[in-house]
Amino acid sequence: MRRTLIVMVKEPRPGRVKTRLGRDIGMTAAAWWFRHQTASLLRRLRDPRWRLVIAISPDMEGLHSRVWPADLRRLPQGRGDLGARMARMLRTVHDGHACLIGADIPGVRPAHIARAFARLGEHDAVFGPAPDGGFWLVGLKRPARPPAGFFLTVRWSTADALSDSVATLPDHRIALCDTLRDVDTADDLTMTSGGSRASSGG
Question: Which stretches does DSSP call E strand in the chain?
């Protein structure tokens, strides 16, 4: 079964990416962090066990940007809230299982991704929880055919984001994988310390 890993990225421009982090450390520093974090993540997650795709925002600028590796397939995220964009990206995969992550997770390693894909062997969906009640990964066994209400009415950026998202997949067998922390604030940056404090949630 073919596997696809989609990484959601934004052009690393000051004031347009990681703005919550930017309020703590400055917008230029936050954009610099995101650019180097994303480059490191993409290098680390190249793996023969899956194909790596990047989902770009803004659409036109990202598709022609020199920031991202030229050999990776790029998809425009399009319009809508986070849920609409993630659902749209997952629906592009018609030939196998798909997992989707953000680019701001310093602790993620190929082993985490492999475990998430393995969960899809006996489950319809998998989530990677985050300590704040959100999630860093979502995966679907049949990504081209999610239910009509997938990711609707989710309270994003709250402690209910994961539970709300699971609720949009009724009658699906749901699995959880490793718990990892994303970086939204300077405190998150300190907590991750390059990913050394990532914990396992099963």
Answer: 3-10, 51-57, 73-76, 97-102, 125-129, 135-140, 174-176
